[in-house]
Amino acid sequence: MINKKIVLLILSLMPFLGIAQGINFEHITLDEALTKAKAENKLVFIDFYTVWCGPCKKMAREIFPLSTVGELYNNNFINLKLDAEKEGEAVAKQYNVTGYPTLLYLDAEGKVLLEDTAFKHEDTFIEMANRAINSQNSKYSLENLKNEFPSRLNDEQFLKMYIRKMDEFGQDISKGVDAWLKVQTEMNESSPEMLKYLLKNSRNILIGGKGEQILEENYDTYMKQASSFEARMLPRIKTQILNGTLDTAVRNKDAELMKVYIEAYKQQPKNRIKKDDLLDAELIYYEMLDDDTSYKTITANYINNLIDQTSIEEIKTADEKSYSMYKKAYDNDPKLARERMLNASKEGLKASKLLKELNELSKGYLEKSTSKKELKAIGKWIKFGYKVKEDNCFMDDLQAEFFFRKGKTQKALELKERAIKNWPKTDKKFVNKEYELQQLKKSI
């Protein structure tokens, strides 16, 4: 049997023995990391992850343990690994982290040197560290570029360099692209070169910006001179601009741009407008404004309309029909994929979708509720949810939060445990429910 003390001793001596090791992530707060970085003349690296994020797990499994990575990061950074939905939630909000993994590089003052998202291979990850190290004293550091940008909006060459550098730093380049398009002299706006640029940067063009204006004024000309590939892509570019504007507004917490997106979304053909997507955008908008009253009003209106327009009998009939269909398919050809769908259909596909939506919207409403009237409305929604399906984890979870709010902590705990027991294990955020249970237990 291996002696645990010997193993621990070897692990502690690894750096001195020259044994290969990966990144040493320290279990300290950001403030402590910044203080330590200043004392040791280092930078700070943060890996923001979530437990349900596949690329995060891949980074942890394949990249962080590499000796080449560990040598560079341990010598130059104080390294932190923060779950953006748990202990790292406040820091994630501080740095506006919205995607996972987010790889963030800070100087000892907490200023951002470099930021990027998604899985990175070894060479790219090492290059990013070197760029962060070199950028801190560079004339074109991220901080300097951001400070200089507002006064250089008419400088074509600066803007071109700004776009390239900001892209290297993993930052949003939409404002840079818009500013450059207004002053650039390199391309005629109706030229094939401009068409290629617009297609390449479609996700960095904003609704109401110069790029959209150029596209609209020259659309027919572009179609005449487009290659077969470009002709296929051009009709899709407006959707790309719409989606890019949403991404930019959310990333930058830009309420004004979010409002522009919502108005543009409403102008789409009716068959492209999804009520739940529009609601999500409006809720994000009112969150940005800290307008709880409007947030609660549109949530309540949506849920009440949903309840009024929902026939429980129709849902049950549709779910029974779906189950029969999947059972027949599985019986004829019992493949694993069909078994999964059969098991999901047992719970009622349509009912589960509705109940999950009701759970999420009601919990958002509950967090902002301040009156007995509002709590009474939530109680009504919970009763409806149990009518849709008498025994369901989504309403158990919502009622647990409802009881906790009313001070009925023991009932809340029992319901939360029952909700987790029956929660779909295929839900990638299932682990968040376990975390909520842990926090509930700590509060009792």
From TrEMBL:
Transmembrane segments: none
Pfam families assigned: Thioredoxin
Thioredoxin domain boundaries: 8-134
InterPro entries the UniProt entry points to: AGR/TXD, Thioredoxin-like_sf, Thioredoxin_CS, Thioredoxin_domain
Domain of life: Bacteria
Keywords recorded for this protein, A-Z: Redox-active center, Signal
Identification of the protein by name: Thioredoxin family protein
Record organism: Aestuariibaculum sediminum
Lineage of the organism: Bacteria, Pseudomonadati, Bacteroidota, Flavobacteriia, Flavobacteriales
